[in-house]
Specification:
CATH class of the domain at 362-475: Alpha Beta
Helix content: 25-40%
Number of strands: 17
Structural class: alpha/beta
Number of helices: 15
Largest sheet: 9 strands, mixed
Strand content: 15-25%
Shape: globular
Length: about 500
């Protein structure tokens, strides 16, 4: 683990325990105690795929109008400075639902046998809710959050895509993108249909995908005025902004229907995103318009909490992490918090009782991801590790240390001024903290045991763009272990921590 928990905890249990389920059921019937327990709130977790915080108007956006999310933020707590732990969908979602960074929960790549599934030993929020008597369900909009990645752990109802392909007479496999994703209106319809049949308090995860893919065009009223090129393709930035507005509308429809269903105990709402997107400003600053990188435009995500147990009209300015969501929701709902997680309860921040900054970690293991063809175009992006101690952010590339970066986020939010060479002591301190966690991956994961996963992800644009296919080459790197000072080009120090770098000789 990279960060010790400070929350009360119980030992992990990878599977729901029948005895606890029975006790919860008896309690809900008034048979488990002498007095009737108070009604428990239902929980709605909304994850927005590929949605940058700065494209929501409650975060100051002038490109998108999001009145529903603005109202949700006004009725609860908005966290201004939230970092995701990864810039690919399954890995980031695993951190949201386990409170662990990727080295802890084990899901680190999209395609690579041994590193592309959530480890069963990781305890999920859905498991905690199920064990305490909540009815659990997930309704999703795309393949990257399917059972294929182990993200169904703890859900009694799991409505998602497992992938469908056509094989022609030559044996060629073709993936129809329509069978791998759906628009938010259909997802919301399915979520509401499940909720109407649910008894008692529920925990519902709704995943909305639209901003990820330009083929999911919003209804006509959202498309007016968006320019098109000679091929008929819509302007990508204007389309992205309208897709965000469409998400906002569908979330409004979801909340309007679910709140009465939750009953007098109310509905606790948690909304966040898995990662952002480079877009035009990311391309201009860092040469990359998509995700799989760890700059601010890719990992600064929205986080809003509202409902029972959450104060109104609060904004938290301190740096927080998506791994903080699980312990926060667990505390509000009275659930046990697993031991050894990286997340911390967010309540002390909105209560003003915590002032110490929280470090943040993120990684991107593209070099051992069988689907990450982008590394042929961006070899500097093969392995990326980020450690943040605000305002300082270290962006470490162990295979290309000379391309690593150090930013002062308070003075340089766009991460354009690399201070690695001029602030070596700060870089040494952050790299030492990173190395202490030992998050490195120095051996290939191998080919996925279901090779079709690469085709499905490629159809959704995860291969690296521009029609890139995955490589059949063995992705090997000649790792060697060196001291931190040596890795930074400083005089070596005896006894200091070591870390892997690529020996290019």
């Amino acid at each position: 683990m990279l960060h010790p928990t400070q929350t009360p905890s119980l030992p992990r249990s990878p599977k729901p325990r029948p005895l606890l389920l029975l006790m919860a059921a008896l309690g809900s019937l008034g048979l488990g105690s002498c007095s009737q327990d108070p009604p428990r709130p239902s929980l709605l977790v909304i994850t927005l795929d590929t949605t940058r915080a700065d494209y929501l108007s409650c975060y100051g956006s002038k490109r998108s109008r999001t009145p529903v999310l603005d109202g949700l933020a006004q009725s609860g707590v908005l966290f201004e400075n939230t970092f995701s732990s990864s810039a690919v969908t399954p890995v980031a979602h695993a951190s949201i639902f386990t409170g662990q960074y990727a080295p802890g929960h084990g899901l680190r790549v999209l395609a690579g046998n041994g590193g592309d599934r959530l480890q069963p030993s990781a305890v999920t929020l859905a498991e905690l809710c199920a064990e305490s008597g909540w009815d659990t369900a997930a309704v999703h909009s795309a393949f990257p959050v399917s059972r294929r990645f182990g993200l169904d752990q703890g859900f009694s109802h799991f409505d998602s895509f497992e992938g469908e392909a056509r094989i022609d007479e030559t044996g060629k496999t073709t993936w129809d993108v329509k069978n791998l994703q759906r628009r938010s209106d259909e997802t919301v319809n399915r979520a509401l249909a499940w909720a109407q049949e649910s008894d008692g308090p529920f925990m519902l995860w709704v995943h909305l995908w639209d901003p990820h893919d330009p083929t999911l065009i919003p209804p006509e009223q959202f498309m007016a005025g968006i320019p098109q090129d000679v091929t008929g393709a819509y302007h990508p930035i204007r389309l992205y902004a309208r897709e965000v507005e469409y998400l906002d509308q569908q979330i409004g429809r979801l909340l309007k229907k679910l709140r009465p269903m939750a009953g007098e105990a109310g509905l606790l709402v948690a909304l966040t995103s898995d990662h952002g997107e480079g877009l035009d400003d990311g391309m201009a600053r860092h040469g990359w318009p998509a995700h799989r990188m760890l700059y601010t435009e890719q990992i600064h995500v929205p986080l809003i909490l509202a409902g029972p147990g959450v104060p109104k009209f609060k904004r938290v300015t301190q740096l927080v992490r998506t791994v903080d969501l699980l312990p926060t929701l667990s505390t509000i709902l009275g659930l046990p918090t697993p031991e050894g997680i990286d997340g911390l309860d967010l309540a002390p921040l909105w209560e003003g009782t915590e002032s110490a900054p929280r470090p943040a970690y993120a990684d991107q293991i593209n070099g051992y991801d069988g689907n990450a063809a982008m590394v042929r175009r961006r070899p500097d992006a093969a392995f990326q590790f980020v450690w943040v101690e605000y305002p300082w952010k270290l962006y470490w590339r162990p295979h290309q240390p000379a391309d690593s970066e150090l930013f002062n986020l308070a003075a340089d939010r766009g991460e354009e001024i690399n201070l690695l060479a001029t602030r070596p002591k700060i870089a040494h301190r952050l790299l030492s903290a990173l190395a202490q966690g030992k998050p490195w991956v120095t051996e290939p994961y191998g080919a996925p045991d279901d090779v079709n996963v690469e085709g499905a992800l490629g159809a959704l644009g995860y291969g690296g763009g521009d029609g890139d296919e995955g490589s059949d080459e063995d992705p090997s790197y000649p790792w060697v272990w060196v001291g931190i000072s040596e890795a930074l080009g400083l005089p070596a120090v005896d006894g200091e921590l070591t870390l892997p770098v690529v020996n290019k000789e």
